[in-house]
Design brief:
The chain is of the alpha+beta class and 263 residues long. Helices cover 35% and strands 26% of the residues. The protein has an 8-stranded mixed β-sheet with strand order 4-3-5-6-7-8-9-10, sandwiched between helices.
């Protein structure tokens, strides 16, 4: 059974998702602006965030809200904050690739306690609450995959090639990880990566340069599915430092060892 708070989050994500699906069908007509290399913002993106903000604000008017597009709106509560990426996978969306999600997390006193990741095209709803497990469409309990060897593992990552120092480092890491694993994937949506990792579809994940809204929903899903996440130094993963190495305990440790060796 979902809590009242999780129901609010699901309602916001699914309503925003319906808006995204409508715009996805008319993607060629969207007005697109560019806010940075390979980082597009569309009218659909902004509309989805407005829907999330309005739905969440209506249900919990005192909570703060941190969104990718609109930044932070302070609330009077002081303990609770919604963290929202209304369209994670914008570039996929704008190219007609159905790999994107609306992602919402609830932070309480600095800890993520509830999460929703919804792909409206696939109609896959990933949810989690602290201590309540992680679920797909309210029916399937999620568990991370049990593979123990990198040679058998499919690893997902987010690699850019803009020539920035971080991109160069990630490409060096990729060169070392690739021959050690069964396969590498790149979906273009960090929330999807973490949700699919929690569901056992992927075995491991690493990426840097992430924002809190990229990490927060998937962090709780992964932990509730029995997974482990750290930063590149091997310390407990945080939504704020932008680094993620994740998987089951064994795969995460092996992947961490390779990434750390690169630098």
């Amino acid at each position: 059974m979902r809590s009242a708070l999780l129901n609010v989050m699901v309602q916001a994500a699914t309503k925003a998702g319906r808006s995204l699906v409508k715009d996805f069908g008319e993607v060629e007509n969207l007005q697109v602006s560019v806010k940075g290399p390979a980082d597009f913002v569309s009218n659909a993106d902004r509309r989805a965030e407005e829907i999330c903000f309005e739905e969440l604000k209506k249900a919990r008017p005192t909570y703060s809200f941190l969104g990718e597009e609109g930044g932070e709106v302070a609330g009077s509560d002081g303990q609770h904050r919604w963290i929202c990426d209304p369209l994670d996978g914008t570039t996929n969306f704008l190219h007609g690739i159905p790999m994107f999600a609306c992602a919402i997390a609830l932070e309480r006193a600095g800890e993520i306690v509830a999460a929703v990741i919804y792909n409206p095209v696939m109609d896959e709803l990933f949810t989690a609450e602290k201590g309540g497990g992680a679920w797909l469409n309210d029916r399937k309990r999620l568990r991370v995959a049990g593979r123990k060897h990198l040679a058998d593992a499919v690893i997902v990552t987010g690699i850019n090639s803009q020539g920035r120092a971080l991109d160069v480092l990630q490409l060096k890491q990729l060169a070392q990880v690739t021959p050690a694993v069964a396969g590498i994937r790149r979906t273009g949506s960090a929330s999807t990566d973490l949700a699919w990792l929690a569901a056992g579809r992927f075995d491991g994940y690493w990426e840097a340069g992430l924002k809190p809204w990229d990490v927060a929903p998937g962090l709780l899903l992964l932990r509730e599915a029995g997974g482990t996440m750290t930063d590149y130094a091997g310390t407990t993963g945080s939504v704020w430092n932008g680094q993620v190495i994740a998987g089951n305990e064994t795969i995460q440790g092996q992947l961490l060892k390779i990434v750390k060796a690169v630098g």
